[in-house]
Specification:
The protein has 345 residues and is α/β, with parallel strands linked by helices. The chain has a single domain (32-343), classed as D-Maltodextrin-Binding Protein, domain 2. The protein contains 13 helices and ten strands. The strands form two sheets. Strands 1, 2, 3, 4, 7, 8, 9 and 10 form an eight-stranded mixed beta sheet that branches. Strands 5-6 form a two-stranded parallel ribbon. Helix 7 links the parallel strand 5 (173-177) and strand 6 (193-197). Helix 3 (80-88) packs parallel to helix 4 (99-105) and helix 5 (121-141) runs antiparallel to helix 13. The longest helix has 35 residues, at 257-291. The protein starts with 6 loop residues before the first helix and ends with a helix. 37% of the residues are buried.
């Protein structure tokens, strides 16, 4: 005789099925979130910090919270060489780097560290228009995508004692970024006293009298309070502090192409804000420090010529190994074209 299945025979099957569904629901998130951990030396509250946080908010908004930017400011992730190493092993997916960090990925970025090559931000912009595709290509070869360029201010010498001449600089202990032995040797062979340190150790370097001079921007000197140890700023601007935000290309490509374009648009807005705000804040920082005792040391025309000659010596060294000669020449050509246009009636 055939028997209808009993209700007690069906109940265990439904219980097992419900349990399996419950486990699957717990195991699969509502959506896959892409997290970009991004490190920077920029202090919390600085224009770089606030701009990157606004960009991150835009990423969250434009991606419907599918992409999150987690910012690690103020050097908490280490110096830029540390951050580059951590990106290589996947501990961080991105970084806001100065040209010092960018040159560890692609040495061509040393171009922007040649003293007195540039005289203004428009000249920097003219060179970036010319060279950006090639510089981005070199980063891409190393597995990185450049999201934005960023202004960091104009580098001056901040020192314990006034610096007017090359001899004045040679008599004091000069901070240089640790990690580039070739650059340290360049300084030493020309009679300077370079002291390689991590940027995160500058304050300690002044406290222990390891260093007397730091090449930095007024914004950084004010924000990090370095000017309290260096009451003199040389009036001659040596170089622009150029930086950029890079992310690992593999992580970037995990984001849907349509969303990526929206994130890139937010990065372009951040780039435009930095270009507007940093030069103004740089000038404002000088005035604030002067009100607190900073003395700006003006350089005469004769002294300026000597500084330019020393800068050309560094440029020759760069042509010999630090910067690809074709890029340095392309930069000089772009600057010459810009200056010719400015002089044209």
């Amino acid at each position: 005789m055939n028997r209808a299945p009993s209700s007690t025979g069906r109940k265990p099957n439904r219980t097992i099925a419900a349990a399996v569904v419950g486990v699957l629901l717990l195991a699969v998130p509502a959506f896959a979130k892409e997290v970009f951990k991004l490190a920077t030396l920029a202090p919390q509250g600085s224009v770089w910090d606030t701009t990157l946080r606004e960009m991150g908010a835009g990423w969250s908004r434009e991606s419907a919270s599918a992409v999150e930017l987690r910012l690690y400011p103020g050097g908490v992730a280490g110096d830029e060489s540390d951050v580059v190493r951590k990106m290589r092993i996947g501990q961080f997916q991105g970084a806001a780097l100065t040209v010092t960090g960018l040159s560890e990925i692609a040495p061509a970025f040393n171009l922007f560290q040649i003293p007195m090559l540039f005289e203004s931000w428009p000249e920097v912009d003219a060179v970036l228009v010319e060279l950006r595709p090639e510089l981005e290509r070199r980063l891409a070869e190393k597995g990185y995508t450049l999201l934005l360029w960023g202004h960091g201010g104009w580098v001056h010498l901040f020192s314990r004692q006034p610096i007017r001449t090359i001899a004045d600089l040679k008599s004091q202990k000069l901070f240089v970024w640790a990690g580039s032995d070739s650059q340290v040797q360049q300084w030493r062979k020309r009679g300077y006293q370079p002291v390689p340190l991590a940027a995160t150790d500058v304050t300690m370097g002044f406290q222990t009298k390891m260093i007397d001079v730091v090449p930095t921007t007024p914004i950084a000197a004010l924000t990090l309070q370095w000017f309290r140890s260096t009451p003199y700023m040389q009036g001659l601007g040596l170089a622009p502090l150029v930086g950029g935000v890079v992310v690992q290309t593999g992580a970037w490509q995990k984001v849907d192409a349509g969303v990526r374009e929206k994130l890139a648009a937010a990065a372009r807005e951040a780039e435009a804000r930095l270009a507007r705000e940093v030069p103004k804040q740089d000038a404002g920082a000088v005035e604030q420090m002067k009100a607190r005792g900073l003395q700006v040391i003006e350089i005469s025309a004769e002294q300026r010529a000597a500084w330019r000659q020393a800068a050309e010596e560094f440029a020759r060294d760069a042509r010999e190994g630090l910067v690809p000669p074709e890029l340095q020449q392309a930069a000089r050509n772009a600057i010459a074209r810009y200056r010719a246009q400015e002089k044209a009636p």
